[in-house]
Structure formats: C-alpha cells, structure tokens
C-alpha cells in the first residue's frame, strides 16, 4: 500500500518503521519484523534509518535482547511520534527521504529494500536475483496471489499462533505449513529448463557427478571472491555439492556467473525428447533459484522447526520436503552470515524421505484453498467471460464505434506504448 502526504524531512535517508510486540516487561520481535531485519542483514544495506515501534501502551518496555542483527543500527520510537503518513499504515513501512511517499506492507517493503540495495551497488547479483524471473517475486499483492498470501500472511500467522500454544498441548502442524509442504512437491518450472535437464540426463548417463561438483566449486570460488568486497564478510562456507540443481542455483547468485559450457551435448542426449528428460529437483521455495520468498519463509520456518522439535520431534517426519529445503537454504552464501547476525542458530535435521501417503496431508489445508482447487480452471478470453455474465443475467449491449476510421500513427509515439513493443 502506498500513501502520499505533503511533508518534508530532508533527512537524506529513507526511514524504515518496524513493529515490536510486548511480552511481560520486554519488547519482542514479531515475525514480519524478523523477516525485514534478516533481509537488511543479508543485503548489508545502509540506505535506511531503522526505527522500532513498540506496541501501544508499552512505551516504557525494555528493548528486545535478541533478534536484532548486529550489523543493522536501530532506534526506538513511540507510536505517537510516528510521522502522520505512517500512522495510518500497517507496519512495516518505508518513508522516502522527502517524507512525501510511504510504502507499506511486508512484500512491498522487502522488494524496495532489494531495489535500493542494487541501486547503491549494481554488482550485488546475489541481491538482485532475489526478485526472481522478470523481477516479479512477490510482486502481486496477497489479495490476488495465493503464493504471496501464503508467504506474506498465512505462514507467518500460522507460526505465530503455533508459538503461542501451551507446551503441554499436543501440537498439530498448521494447515498453512502443510500447504507449503505440498507446494514444495510440485514440479519445477524455470526458464530454459530443457538445457539443465539434458545436463542432468548426461550426468545420470555417466553414472557420476564430477561435472556438477566442478560447477559447484567454481560457484563457491566466485561467491567467496564477491564476499571479500569491502563492507561484507565471507561466510566461510565451502560449497561442495553433487546436486546439479543446487550448483546451478548457486552459480546464479555470483557476480561473475560460471561460464556456460560451449561444447554441444552428445547426440544421444540431444535426441532425447523433452518429455523423456528427468525432472528437476526443487531446491528452493519457487523452484530452482533462491528468491525473496525463501528470505520471507526462513525466519518463520526456523522458529517453527525449533518449537516443533522441542514439542514433538517425531512430527518433523511429516515435513520431509520442508526439512530438505531448510538444509538447502543454508548452502546459499550470505545466509549463514545474516542468520548469525540475527541470532538464528540453524538446527541439524535428519534426512526424511517423502512417504507414499504424503499427498493425503493436503486434506488439512485451509477450506478456501481446497475449494479453489475443486473449481473448474478459469478459461480466459472475451467469449467465455461474456457467456458467464449472460448466465448470471448480465448482458452487454454493443454500440457502434464512434470513430471507426480513426487510426493512430504508432511510429510517432514512444516505443513503450506501441503494442508491438510492450510486454
């Protein structure tokens, strides 16, 4: 949500306002704030003045003792001292350096942090790639996108409710978490996946995975070189993976991407039909690449897994794909550094194999999600839409075009408005 207000600050920096919760006599860090602080730590951004806003009636509460990253400077500000443009918004919110423009909402704020970081340092490929294919990750609002709603609203809310449950109660995995587990089992769809799948087939045909290990080593070397830039610290993480998908994902985050192999695949690999190629293994939340969705989910699911392992560890076996994702995320250069700064100490989870009856877990999904899945898929276009309207008593009446012979000189207009140029 964006709000305009005629107000100037002249601060030179954008102001980021984050919520604090209240427990006993001390403030605590809610999940939306933890997610934002984790991203700030990962980006190493200094483009924002960060203000923590205690809950109403908690002005005298002590600041939180944990959950605040060491590399992000923060200040406390009471709600009555908030700029007027922020008071009408749900936090997190960012006000620009003029004080006239406010961005509010978790996904909007996170995308803005990524964009500002890249404006300050265009070489930060590890940050720019968080926006995903065509820079659309979490761009659609939660009201229209089930995926944004799951990441931004459903999972954080489910985890916070789970954490509030008394320890003596027998825990149950929240429906939103089960729905995410199901999503992690869906097929991977990425741009140019045919090439990657043929590399995987070639790997399988050789019976060994030396090439993937070399690619991962090159990616780790490039990541290490990038991490040594001024103002950034190396994770000390050496990536050694025989997993082609993970190697490909990590290479995309480096400043100097791993050079593509110019030699053609063997003829027996080239002749294999696309339908017969091996499927790609899902590594991260949106598929093959580490994106902003993983940044949103990591602080939430870490707290959930820590709590679940204490309450009823055997339930972890019901989430094999989520457990695997949790391990893959730790392989991303920069994640362990940011996690350590935020006080996140990763669990060492056992490896679980998906059970044959795993799909049956979807019966616990939210009722509205199940209902949506049972409906006939929407078929777009004017005719089906007009037919549906007519069936419900709404009939359009057409009138002649007022200027049927009117034409536009597209060549005289900017290319951005030309139908042949636009996307």
Automatic annotation (TrEMBL):
Where is the segment annotated Disordered?
Answer: 202-238, 355-386, 398-423
Protein name, per record: Glutathione S-transferase, C-terminal domain containing
Any stretches that span the bilayer, and where are they? none
Q: Which organism is it from?
A: Latimeria chalumnae (Coelacanth)
Q: Which domain of life is it from?
A: Eukaryota
Its GO CC terms?
Answer: cytoplasm
Fetch the InterPro entries from UniProt: Glutathione-S-Trfase_C-like, Glutathione-S-Trfase_C_sf
- Specify the GST C-terminal domain's residue ranges: 194-360
User: Compositional bias (Low complexity) at which positions?
Assistant: 213-227
């Amino acid at each position: 949500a964006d709000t305009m207000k005629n107000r100037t600050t002249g601060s030179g920096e954008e102001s980021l306002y984050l919520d604090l919760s209240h427990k006993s006599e001390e403030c605590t860090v809610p999940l939306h704030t933890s997610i934002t602080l984790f991203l700030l730590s990962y980006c190493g951004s200094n483009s924002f003045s960060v203000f923590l806003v205690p809950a109403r009636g908690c002005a005298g509460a002590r600041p939180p003792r944990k959950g605040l990253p060491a590399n992000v400077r923060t200040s406390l500000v009471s709600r009555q001292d908030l700029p007027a443009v922020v008071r009408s918004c749900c936090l997190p919110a960012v006000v620009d350096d003029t004080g006239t423009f406010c961005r509010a909402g978790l996904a909007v704020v996170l995308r803005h942090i990524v964009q500002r970081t890249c404006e300050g340092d265009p070489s930060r490929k590890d940050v720019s790639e968080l926006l995903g294919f065509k820079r659309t990750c979490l761009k659609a609002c939660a009201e229209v996108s089930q995926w944004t709603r799951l990441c931004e609203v459903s999972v954080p809310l489910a985890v916070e409710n789970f954490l509030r449950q008394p320890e003596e109660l027998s825990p149950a995995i929240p429906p939103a978490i089960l729905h995410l587990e199901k999503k992690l089992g869906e097929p991977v769809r990425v741009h140019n996946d045919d090439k990657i799948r043929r590399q995987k087939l070639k790997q399988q045909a050789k019976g060994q995975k030396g090439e993937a290990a070399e690619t991962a080593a090159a990616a780790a070397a490039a990541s290490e070189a990038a991490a040594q830039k001024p103002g950034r610290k190396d994770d000390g993480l050496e990536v050694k993976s025989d997993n082609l998908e993970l190697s490909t994902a990590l290479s995309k985050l480096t400043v100097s991407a791993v050079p593509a192999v110019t030699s053609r695949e063997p003829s027996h690999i080239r002749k294999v039909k696309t339908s017969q190629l091996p499927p790609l293994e899902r590594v991260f939340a949106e598929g093959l690449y580490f994106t902003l969705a993983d940044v949103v989910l990591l602080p939430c699911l870490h707290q959930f897994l820590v709590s679940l392992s204490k309450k009823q560890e055997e339930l972890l076996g019901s989430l094999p794909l989520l457990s695997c994702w949790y391990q893959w995320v730790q392989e991303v250069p920069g994640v362990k550094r940011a996690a350590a700064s935020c006080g996140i100490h990763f669990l060492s989870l056992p490896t679980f194999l998906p059970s044959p009856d795993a799909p049956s877990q979807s019966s616990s999904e939210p009722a509205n999600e199940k209902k949506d899945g049972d409906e006939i898929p929407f078929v777009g276009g004017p005719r089906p839409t007009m037919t549906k309207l007519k069936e419900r008593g709404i009939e359009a009446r057409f009138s002649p075009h007022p200027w049927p012979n009117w034409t536009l000189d597209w060549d005289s207009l900017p290319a951005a408005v030309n139908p042949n140029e636009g996307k």
